[in-house]
Each structure stands twice: as C-alpha cells, then as structure tokens.
Specification:
The chain has 313 residues and is of the alpha+beta class. It has 2 domains: 3-136, 2-Layer Sandwich (Killer Toxin P4, Chain A), CATH 3.30.430.20; 150-272, Killer Toxin P4, Chain A, CATH 3.30.430.20. The chain is 29% helix and 22% strand. It has a 6-stranded antiparallel β-sheet, covered by helices on one side. A 5-stranded antiparallel β-sheet has the order 1-4-5-3-2. Helix 2 runs antiparallel to helix 3 and helix 5 (160-178) packs antiparallel against helix 6 (216-232). The two termini are 17 Å apart. It binds 2-acetamido-2-deoxy-beta-D-glucopyranose (4 copies). Residues 159-161, 234, 237-238 line the site of one 2-acetamido-2-deoxy-beta-D-glucopyranose.
C-alpha cells in the first residue's frame, strides 16, 4: 500500500478530466493478480503494450458501436494477452475515451507491479481488463473490482420503502433484459405515485449494461450480483440515485433522465408497468424538475483505498 501512488493516480486522471468537468472527482479501482510476473521488455510485456495500443486506437468500426466496446488478443501462449475496454453508456464520451487512450502499458505495469492480469475501473465510466489467458464470455466476479457511487438523497419519496420498491421493479427488469440485447444494454424508467405525499408523480430512470463479450446468462448473473450490492450496501440501500460499476457489468438509477453516449440511447424507455400508477413514465410531464447537479461521492472510499493496490489471486 502506497498512499503517494494512490494520490498520483487520482491526480493523473483528474487532470485529464479537468478539461471537461472541473467539478468531477474521479475514482479508480484496480485489481492486480500477482506482482513481478513480467518485464516491459519481455515478450509478454511487449504483447501488453501492443494490446493496449490496439484498444486505444481501434480500426474503423466493423462491428456496430465498436467505439464503445473493444476487445483484442495478441500473441500465442504462454505470452498471449487478451483484453477489452468499454465505455459504459452514460459515460462522458471525451473523458471515457481519454481514460482508455491514456491507459498505456507503462502506466498499468507501474500501477499493478507487473501483474499479468489487471482489472481497472474509473468512475468516468471506463472499464478495462486484460489477462494472460482468454476470458471473453465470462464475467469478472471479483467483489474488489467494483465502484459504488451514489449522489445525495434529494428526491421526495414518502419512504425509503417506496423508493426501494420502485427501484426493485425497474432494475430487476433491466438486469434481465440487458443480456438479450445486441449491445448488452437496457434502459427504462419507472413511475411512482406516492399517495403519502399528495400523489406527486415521480420517475426513476435506470440502465443496465454488460461488456459485449458476455452471453445472456453471464450478463444476467453479473447484473444480479450488482443488484444485490444495491440492496445490501448501507451506502446506497436507501439512496434515490446510485450506481454500481463493475469490470464486466454496470447498473445505475437516478431521478432524472440519463444522458447517453452516441448510439447508446437506441433502446426506448420501458413502458410503465401495468399495475402501479397510471400515465407514461417516458412522457410524464410531471417528472420532477432537474435539480442542481449533485456531487457524486464514493460510498466506500476507505475500502477503495485499501483495495486499490491490494494483490490477490
Ligand atoms: C508469477 O510469479 C510467481 C512467482 O514469482 C510464479 O510462481 C507464477 O508461476 C507466475 N505466474 C505466471 C503466470 O507466470
Ligand atoms: C503513458 O501514460 C502516462 C499517463 O497517461 C503518460 O504520462 C506517459 O507519457 C505515457 N507513456 C507513453 C510511452 O505513451
Ligand atoms: C489470469 O486470468 C486468467 C483468465 O481469466 C486465469 O485463467 C488465470 O488464472 C489468472 N491468473 C492469475 C494469477 O490470477
Ligand atoms: C433504510 O430505510 C429503512 C426504513 O425503510 C431503515 O430502517 C434503514 O435503517 C435504512 N438503512 C440505512 C442504511 O439508512
């Protein structure tokens, strides 16, 4: 554990972010396999460099939306390295591409002490993963590789229970749908009419997404794990706006419409459920006014700092 390096890491990316949004703090999380397992000049080290360069400068789109999801493999065993990079759908496009483009092999080998497997997450919406054996199709289920973010409670649900009910209805449906979409992406909204507070109509918006290498079942189970985090983590269990970001999937909700990066809003908002309140969530004229942008805070900063450079299997 080296606090100085953690600080440097935060500064390095905060500086990249400064051009687009000075207010936003950037949090990162890295999971490294085992230190000291290659050198930059070894064949594996060169393959990592080639991989990261390929991920940051992709060929012209051959697959739809290649811009936001990239995967690549370099070399042959035992020096083979496979990797992917994703910008999650509500990322700031410039910040996220900066994140992918600036994550070169020197940076990662310093960060992870020359570990052969690396999982990396940034709160700008960028996730990267590489390993010395093919992993495409299976999710990274490491608990360590998650960022839990929430914004301050400010919407007016009559009770935390009402909020949790709306959230459960919305997110469990999105978690099931995302895996069946070609982009592994689902978005929707859920209306809530709270009788206890004079019948005010509120809309909760959510999205669920997996990396595009995952098959349906793996995507769903990845998202269901994140849903469980939302239900259990004290930092977000009663929050009206939160996100749980993993290396393989991502789940979030908030009380205002979500801004998506280009090409990722194609899926129309979910129709409101049949039984609860009337009216269309998507077109609701009574959606709450959008308040000032809240500062995203990390729910478990201490835990993040502790796990940032931790080394595990
Ligand atoms: C990583 O290094 C350890 C000891 O330094 C070694 O036992 C292990 O086999 C190495 N793993 C790989 C994949 O090279
Ligand atoms: C690697 O990335 C770091 C941080 O983004 C940057 O300072 C450095 O110049 C880069 N090195 C190369 C060789 O691109
Ligand atoms: C690295 O990742 C690969 C692919 O997931 C896995 O097979 C291997 O066991 C991992 N190595 C370590 C040291 O964690
Ligand atoms: C969440 O709200 C419930 C009331 O519905 C309360 O009992 C519980 O303590 C709250 N949990 C947290 C972590 O604030």
């Amino acid at each position: 554990m080296d606090p100085a390096r953690l600080l440097l890491l935060l500064l390095a990316v905060a500086a990249i972010g400064a051009t687009a949004d000075v207010d936003r703090q950037v949090f990162m999380k890295v999971t490294c396999s085992a230190p000291g397992n290659y050198t930059d000049s070894s064949r594996f080290g060169k393959n990592v460099a080639e991989l990261l360069s390929a991920l940051s400068t992709p060929p012209p789109a051959t697959v739809g939306n290649y811009r936001w999801f990239r995967s690549h493999t370099v070399g042959a065993a035992p020096d083979q390295v496979s990797g992917l990079a994703v910008c999650y759908a509500n990322a700031d496009a410039d910040l996220c591409l900066d994140c992918i483009n600036s994550a070169n092999s020197t940076w990662f080998s310093d960060l992870c002490d020359d570990s052969r497997n690396v999982s990396f997450l940034s709160s700008v919406g960028c996730a990267m993963r590489y390993a010395d054996a093919p992993f495409f199709g299976s999710a990274d289920s490491g608990d360590g590789a998650r960022l839990i973010l929430r914004s301050d409670f400010r919407a007016t649900f009559a009770s935390a229970a009402a909020m949790r009910k709306a959230r459960r209805g919305l997110l469990s449906q999105l978690a099931e749908r995302a895996g069946g979409d070609a982009l592994r992406f689902a978005t929707g909204s859920q209306g809530n009419k709270d009788a206890d507070i004079g019948g005010a109509w509120q809309v909760m918006y959510g999205m669920a997404e997996c990396t595009r290498d995952l098959p349906l079942s793996e995507c769903s189970s990845c998202l269901i794990d994140l849903l469980a985090v939302m239900y259990e983590d004290v930092g977000v269990t009663n929050s009206t706006s939160a996100s749980v970001m993993g290396v393989s999937c991502y789940l979030m909700y908030q009380m205002e419409p979500i801004n998506f990066i280009a090409g990722m809003a194609a899926v129309p908002p979910a129709a409101p459920p049949a039984e609860p309140p009337t009216g269309s969530a998507a077109a609701s004229p009574a959606a709450p006014p959008v308040g000032p942008k809240t500062t995203v805070v990390i729910a478990a900063m201490a835990a993040a700092a502790v796990t940032l450079f931790s080394v595990g299997a």
